[in-house]
């Protein structure tokens, strides 16, 4: 993180998004290092739930579909029965 007083000029390089690959000796060193297990409390983070589930229910069942033979019949069904058009 960098904080600057405005106005400021920020420039970038072409290699900004180019990944850096670890060398084999560094990979071997990393394998030997112990990994400390920490809890969220170690970082001062509160993980208490903030949401409360009031109710859950399954969605209603769907009606069976209807096959139509022509485009005119489809338009008529959408207009009259479904009220979409």
3D architecture notes:
This protein has two helices and no strands. It is elongated. The mean pLDDT is 87. The protein has 85 residues and is an all-alpha fold. It has helices spanning 24-32, 71-82.
Shape: elongated
* Tally of DSSP β-strands: 0
Cα(first) to Cα(last) distance is 54 Å
Order of helices and strands: HH
Task: Walk me through the topology.
Layout: H1 24-32, H2 71-82
Features:
0% strand, elongated, 25% helix, 85 residues
Summarize the structure in short.
The chain is 25% helix and 0% strand. By secondary structure, it is mostly helical.
């Amino acid at each position: 993180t960098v904080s600057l007083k405005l106005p400021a000029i920020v420039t970038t390089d072409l290699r900004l998004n180019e990944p850096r690959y670890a060398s084999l000796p560094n990979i071997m060193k990393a394998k030997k290092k112990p990994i400390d297990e920490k809890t969220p409390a170690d970082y001062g983070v509160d993980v208490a739930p903030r949401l409360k589930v009031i109710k859950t229910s399954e969605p209603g069942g769907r009606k069976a579909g209807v096959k139509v033979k022509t485009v005119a019949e489809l338009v008529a069904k959408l207009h009259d029965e479904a009220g979409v058009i």
